[in-house]
């Protein structure tokens, strides 16, 4: 059944995060690992035996388990004690999950230390862009755009937050340049222009729910992995080079992708708030590309040349996970299926998620 997004915006509830939704409810588990994390967050303690070593590092169970751990460092969950953010048992469990995930990304990327070559490859835009954005640009339907928004909401409603962790770990021009880019991401001093706020407006304009993590139950592992990578790199000082490489990849590849989304949304006669979010990224991120390349990466590697391989890995890991996300979504759509998880057995997938 082909379902379109509703024409009227959903009603937003303002919460403690300063954006729609406030504290999110704790999601249901998707297996043994996420069940262990959920039990600990609800006060039941850690199960005596659970196997991380054989878990799919990119699978729903491990990625949701990591996401639940990391969310304690952001807005937290409704009815979960904030003190659990630094609970020793939870941190030990999280470390095992992180090791499994990080090892897989290192295994599945090429590595190397040639930062200039890696940056040049990002700048080269293919004549016929592929991926989810290319599909939406060439033939995307409105329901597919809505699904794409739901996936991306897991990150964009906390856009740029993970990058703040690296600020005290940088010096000189690298710190100044990254803060300058982040200042734009956080609205240039105006709350209404914070990019997370603009994405909430986009969701409202599309007739979706702009509540913080509202679509977490419906979003499968590939997008959770993208967001978890940012949190992993951001929380660990030793991974500061990886976070800078990731951030540079986002800023360099954002303008052409955002430009295509602007064209897509105009073609589909989308609400102006939807267009505005991507139009903002076309203009701002084009400037950010040079700042990230010259000031942030350039100065970081002049001070710490040993981080070259880390910066390259951050770029490659970002491409790896974004490519996995694209393949997952496009394979589902090609099969005539929703790319979102079923959250209610009595209705079809898109109807469940978007309440049609």
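Q: What amino acid sequence fits the structure above?
A:
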């Amino acid at each position: 059944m082909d379902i379109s997004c509703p024409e009227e915006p959903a009603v937003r509830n303002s919460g403690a995060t300063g954006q729609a939704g406030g504290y999110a409810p704790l999601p249901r588990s998707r297996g043994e690992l996420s069940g262990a994390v959920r039990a600990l967050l609800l006060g039941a303690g850690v199960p005596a035996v659970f196997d991380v070593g054989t878990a799919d590092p990119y699978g729903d169970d491990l990625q949701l388990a990591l996401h639940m751990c990391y969310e304690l460092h952001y807005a937290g969950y409704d009815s979960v004690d904030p003190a659990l953010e630094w609970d020793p048992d939870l941190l030990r469990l999280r470390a095992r999950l992180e090791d499994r995930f990080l090892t897989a990304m290192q295994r599945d990327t090429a590595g190397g230390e040639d930062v200039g070559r890696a940056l040049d490859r990002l700048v080269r835009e293919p004549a016929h862009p592929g991926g989810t954005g290319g599909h939406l640009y060439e033939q995307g339907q409105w329901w597919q755009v809505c699904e794409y928004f739901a996936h991306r909401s897991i990150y964009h409603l906390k856009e740029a937050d993970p990058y703040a962790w690296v600020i005290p770990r940088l010096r000189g021009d690298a710190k100044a340049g990254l803060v300058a880019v982040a200042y734009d991401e956080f609205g240039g001093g105006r709350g209404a222009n914070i990019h997370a706020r603009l994405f909430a407006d986009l969701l409202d304009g599309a007739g979706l729910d702009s509540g913080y993590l509202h679509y977490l139950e419906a979003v499968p592992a590939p997008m959770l992995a993208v967001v978890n990578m940012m949190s992993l790199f951001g929380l660990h000082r030793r991974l500061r080079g990886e976070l800078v490489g990731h951030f540079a990849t986002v800023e360099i590849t954002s303008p052409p992708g955002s430009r295509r989304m602007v064209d897509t949304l105009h073609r589909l006669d989308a609400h102006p708030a939807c267009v505005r979010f991507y139009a903002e990224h076309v203009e701002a991120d084009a400037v950010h590309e040079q700042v990230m390349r010259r000031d942030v990466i350039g100065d970081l590697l002049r001070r710490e040349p040993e981080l070259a391989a880390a910066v390259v890995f951050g770029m490659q890991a970002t491409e790896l996970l974004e490519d996995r996300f694209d393949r997952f979504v496009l394979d589902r759509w090609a099969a005539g299926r929703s790319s979102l998880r079923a959250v209610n057995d009595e209705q079809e997938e898109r109807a469940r998620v978007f309440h049609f």
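Q: And what stands out in the fold?
A: The two ends are 11 Å apart (CA to CA).
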